[in-house]
Amino acid sequence: MPGSVRARAAAGATVVVALALIAAGTAVLLVLRGNLQGQAGLQAEVAAREVAAQIATGTPYDRLDLPDGDEHPVVVTDEDGRVLAAGDEVRAVDGKSVGGARAGAGRTGAGQLPDDDADDEDDARGPRPGEVDDDVHQSDGTADVDGTVADYRFAVVGAEDGRGVKATVRAGSALAPERAAVGSVRDAMLIGLPLLLVVVAGVTWLVTRRALRPVEGIRSEMAEITASTDLSRRVPEPAARDEIARLARTTNETLAALEASVERQRRFVADASHELRSPIASLRTQLEVGVAHPELLDVPGAVADTVRLQRLAADLLLLARLDAGERPAGGRVDLAALVREETAQRAGDRVPVRVSASEGLEVAGSRSQLGRVLGNLLDNAQRHAAASVEVAVVRDGAWAVLRVEDDGPGVPEAERERIFERFVRLDDARARDDGGAGLGLAIARDVAVRHGGSLAVRAGAVFELRLPVAG
């Protein structure tokens, strides 16, 4: 598939390797060309110095031992550019004819070459009689040897014979071998590069397919889980400790959390249906009796069942909003004022409430939801208290702490977390319960968490709500 990860990985690796090979091949060709040109220049310099040494030792120009023209074309000129000697079969250099001069014919002025280095040599100290100049000048040019024009690397060396006559020896070395070698290497690279890229693409494809095989297993298993809706299944986890193994573990953790969430929702619906069934059935029975025998209608009981049903519906609606991720309203709530307002409405309750609150302690959040938390905690405390309920609001560093304590038997340590689950009521609470559905503490903790705080049971029967101080 053109859009698959394997295809993109293979294409990316091929492009990267191609660019790297092109850069490396270009560098190799440049270095090879430079080295071969350097070798050609060195050979030309050796040939030029051999001839210059003969001139410096007094060998006549017509008796100079010159190399073959097809290997190293040599031309000897004087200061005026007249050809003093030339190698066999050398007809022209850089397009300038040597005039057919051979072994000293240049003394008669048969040919003349422009001396590119004459001015430089005149400015320099130059060789003394019987010496060869230490300096050498190299340049590229052409030479006609026996009718064949080719490129050469020329070396120019100055010499002076014993009579004080200055001569310039220009010897060349063919560049054809260097170009042939560079061309051979270039052709080999052009042939090998596509083959190597094919190998790289194929290997990358195979390696990527092998590496992504566990991902395909995860994908296929997830597709089957989605089709079957069986959240108890898990994807296979590779034995390797790599990114794919971590992906598989994370996927299984997500499936486990999703399974737990779905199971929790199922229990919630089942428990809600059970809790709703009782007041609805009771209310229906009373209404049916009232229709048949109006004098037997229990109006207070019907009202109580209606209120219970209304409260339960409100609790379920609030839990649904919390589960949907509803954020609390962005306001400031004075906890001391909230406590005073809530306790003022409970002046006639069975157990009085004593308040000890620090003034001016504000938290950010929803006043109605925090009031619901306080009300649920007070309802729970008054349901289990023997004679007193105390509410305190204090500051603990960056936290505002609201404590609700009663003098009841307290919560067993083993049950201190379970009581915050939905529709959970302890056995002794069921015996004394006045109709609660076991949602109050669950709602209180969810609201506390949504406000960035926590709700927990401390020693005995102390419920502690911790919220971050506003500002």
Description:
- The protein is of the alpha+beta class.
- It has 3 domains: 1-228, no CATH class; 243-321, Helix Hairpins, CATH 1.10.287; 328-468, 2-Layer Sandwich (Heat Shock Protein 90), CATH 3.30.565.
- The chain is built from 9 helices and 14 strands.
- A 7-stranded antiparallel β-sheet has the order 2-1-7-6-5-3-4. Strands 9-11-12-14-13 form a 5-stranded mixed β-sheet. A two-stranded antiparallel ribbon has the order 8-10.
- Strand 3 and strand 4 form a beta hairpin.
- The longest helix has 53 residues, at 176-228.
- It is rod-shaped, with a radius of gyration of 52 Å.
- The protein starts with a helix and ends with a strand.
- Residues 100-125 and 428-433 have low confidence and may be disordered.
Topology summary:
Elements: H1 5-56, E1 74-78, E2 83-86, E3 90-93, E4 96-97, H2 118-123, E5 132-145, E6 148-160, E7 166-174, H3 176-228, H4 243-292, H5 299-323, E8 332-334, H6 335-344, E9 353-357, E10 362-364, H7 367-384, E11 389-396, E12 399-406, H8 427-432, H9 440-450, E13 454-457, E14 462-468
Parallel strand pairs: 9-11
Antiparallel strand pairs: 1-2, 1-7, 3-4, 3-5, 5-6, 6-7, 8-10, 11-12, 12-14, 13-14
Can you tag this structure with a few keywords?
7-stranded antiparallel β-sheet, Heat Shock Protein 90, 471 residues, Helix Hairpins, alpha+beta, single chain, 9 helices, 5-stranded mixed β-sheet, 14 strands
Specify the number of helices: 9
Q: How confident overall, as mean pLDDT?
A: 82
Largest beta-sheet details: 7 strands, antiparallel
Portion of residues in beta strands equals 15-25%
N- to C-terminal distance: 55 Å
